[in-house]
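Sample A.
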Amino acid sequence: MDPYGGADLLSGAYGPQDRQRMVKEKPKSSERTDFERDRARVLHSSALRRMGEKTQVLGPSTNDFVRTRLTHSLEVAQVGRELGKELGADPDVVDAACLSHDLGHPPFGHNGEKALDVLAGDIGGFEGNAQTLRIVARLEPKVLSSGGQPAGLNLTRATLDAICKYPWAKGQGPDPEKSRRKFSVYGDDEPVFRWMRQGAPEGRRCLEAQIMDLSDDIAYSVHDVEDAIATGKFAPADLHDDGVVEAVIDATVDWYGKGISRHDLEGAIQRLVSLDVWLPSFAGSYADLARLKDLTSELIGRFCSDTVAVTREAFGEGPLGRYRADLIVTDETRAEIQVLKGMAVHYVMSPRESEPVYYQQRTLLNDLVDVLFTNGPHHLEPLFAQQWRAAIGDEERLRVVIDQVSSLTDASASAWHARLCGMLSTQL
């Protein structure tokens, strides 16, 4: 019987299957719901704490104002929780998914992810979303199976599924080429993935995962622009210059593809700069910073309210959790979010691509993987040293090393490199 059909579908309730954990646990005396417990497990995880020292766009040591992976995830969770509440999805499921969505990111942001993907090319690659599932379902110490095997945080099926941004293995998504780059499970984690996806439509994301993904885009686009303005990298008045607009659109298309036309991106910029809250200038005064915060609040509210309205119009009132609805985002909202991301690319991310620090970061991670793989468990943390000793063959041992290196923060990766490779890397 379809677990999402019948009376359960009509009531909008999360059923017993949604609350199941892969490893059965003894009943708890607390009054907390299963989903509140999931959120607490993520919130108290060591993987979440480490994100406080991991790069979002600019490194944590570059400026006290800019976001880290942790502060970004907290902001994503706030946006997602409100969207989930408005749409009748369990807010704790959405909150837990938003807090978890970047757990798998390695040191040095996307630059580090690219480096580890190359190093892990022969064992299925490295993908931040697949690493996230691996962390919550295996690596983060919390629960052991009856056979003594790690079960990670042992989250409920609904929460695990909400974390899964790309619900397929490498190359097995709706778009085979794109899914070779974006996927949410490695081959050796497929048992928990199959358990998690029982009863779910193949290749389709649950509503909570869609909310998490949109909340990430909203927070990423709005807050990265806020950081760029506050740190003096982007003057908002520049967008009244046609040449600058063309350059921003070029950067957006180059970075994110042609899914949204140049015409629509240009219209999005025109709408944004026409808003009453768009800053005419910014000099860093208290008043400027207050107006900048008003801008970010207005943009987040604009995107969320528009999405709730059109989704409710399509699917009606009542709880819309799990597979009872799909999030509807208008073309105008998508274009505005995309072009905000393009502004961050043009003013912050693209200029950094050619900086020597990017090459140094990739070299540092290459060196670390090499020295740890060569020296085995001698330098690994006890958790990973144990897994190394239990590994069968070099492929499994390399995956253990990748797990170890990806768990490090920007600062600890530099410290490990200085200690193990005999090089001072603290400037990274």
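Sample B.
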Amino acid sequence: MNREEANQALEIIRRVVSQARDDSSLQNWGAIWMFHGVTNTTGFAGTQWLWSAGHRTPHAYAVLWASILAINIVTIFLFKRGQTAGARSFIERQIWAIWSTLVGGMVLAAFCNWLLGLDRLFMPTISCILLATAFSMMGALMGRIWFWVAAFLAVMSLVMACLPQLAFSMLAGVWFVVQFGAGFTLHRARLRRLASQRPEARLV
């Protein structure tokens, strides 16, 4: 084997190791996503209840979602504390960036909704569009399956626009299916990897 062939072999090994490590990092978010699938679904269902009960000021919604976000942030660190994946990988940095941007965008959209004084909330539809955008970015980084999730969310945003009075309930159901389902898939892949004690091929 000459020097050029050795360098090519080394590059292939680096890519395989990096891929396995990134997949392992992504799998570590499975349990977190399952838990957040429940908390966020509860938040959207609670928002639907508040809206149906006639609450039109932002205070009750702010308290509800501040509590949900606080729980979510705390549980991320609690779940990650027991994992020994080492330094944060490229994939994990992208997950943090994508989801932080998503949360910021949803908060800003809700604030703009209030500033505009809209009687009929457009938040469920806008939230679904933002979610579709986030999952599309994940697809570009982590695999084509996430593009299908983004397409599903894009279609559901149109359905919610046609049924605004039920939109938050629909968003709660969609969110549970998407986030809990994705988390369950990743968590199951992590358990299989740990049981086999060897890196697996790309999972997404």
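B remarks: The two ends are 34 Å apart (CA to CA). Residues 29-82+111-196 form one domain.
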